[in-house]
Amino acid sequence: MGTVIAIDGPGGAGKSTVSRGLAEALGYAYVDTGAMYRVIGVLAAERGIPVDDEAALAALCDATEIEFGERAGVPVVTADGRDLSRAIRTAEAAQQASRYSTVPAVRERLVAKQRAIGAAADVVMEGRDIGTVVFPDALLKVFLDASPRERARRRASELGGGDGEVDRMAKEISERDQRDRSRAHSPLRAAADAVELDTTTLSIDEVVAKLLEMVHRRLGVLASSS
C-alpha cells in the first residue's frame, strides 16, 4: 500500500485547498472523495434514481469511472470522460451528495474505489470518513474544522455571494453537519487518534505548513523504526 495522509472534516473547513497544497508539497496524488459522492449524487438525480433504490445506485457506482485531473492549475473531475467540475460544486450538488451518501451500497462501492487508489500510490485523501473507515491505518489522520459561520463565509466568497448568502449557507451547513454526524453508516467524526485542527483563524499556508511538519515527523519515525 502507498503512504496515505487522511484529511477529514465537514464542508468548508478548508480540506480541499489544504489537501491539494499538502499533496503538491509532498509530491503525492490528491483525491477528493467528497467529489466522488457529489458525482454520484448529480448523476443519480439526473437519471431520477430515488435514494431508496440501492440496486440502481450500486450499479451506477460500479459503472461510473471517476477521474481527477487538473487544467490550468484548476482541479478537474470527470465521470466517464464528462467534465462535472462545475456541476458538482453547487449547493444543490452538496445536498444531493449528503442524501445519497447515506445509502450503504453507495458508500461501500466508493470506499472500495478509494482503497484501490490508496493501494496504488502515495496519496493525500480528503473526505468525511477517511481516517475512521477508509484508511484507519493511515500514516497521519487529521480532522479539520471551523465555525459554521466561517465555513459559510468561505463558500460564499468562492461563489461571489453576499451576507444574505452567508446566512443561508450557514443554515444549510449546520443542517448537513447534523445529517452527516447522525447517519448510521460512516458518520462524520474524528478518528480517536486523529490530530484535530480548527482552521477558523488560520490561513491555508499556515495549515499546510503545520501538516507538512507532522508528515515529515511521522515519516522520520517510520524510517528510524524500520
Overall residue-averaged pLDDT value: 91
Low-confidence spans: pLDDT under 50, at least 5 residues? none
> Sheet with the most strands?
5 strands, parallel
Number of helices: 9
The quaternary organization reads as: single chain
Strand content: 15-25%
Output the structural class: alpha/beta
What is the strand tally? 8
Shape: globular
* Through-space gap between termini: 16 Å
Q: Tell me the strand order in the biggest sheet.
A: 2-6-1-7-8
Helix proportion range: 40-55%
SSE order, one letter for each helix or strand: EHEHHEEEHHEHEHHEH
The value of Rg in angstroms is 17 Å
Summarize this structure as a short list of keywords or feature phrases:
9 helices, 3-stranded antiparallel beta sheet, 226 residues, alpha/beta, 8 strands
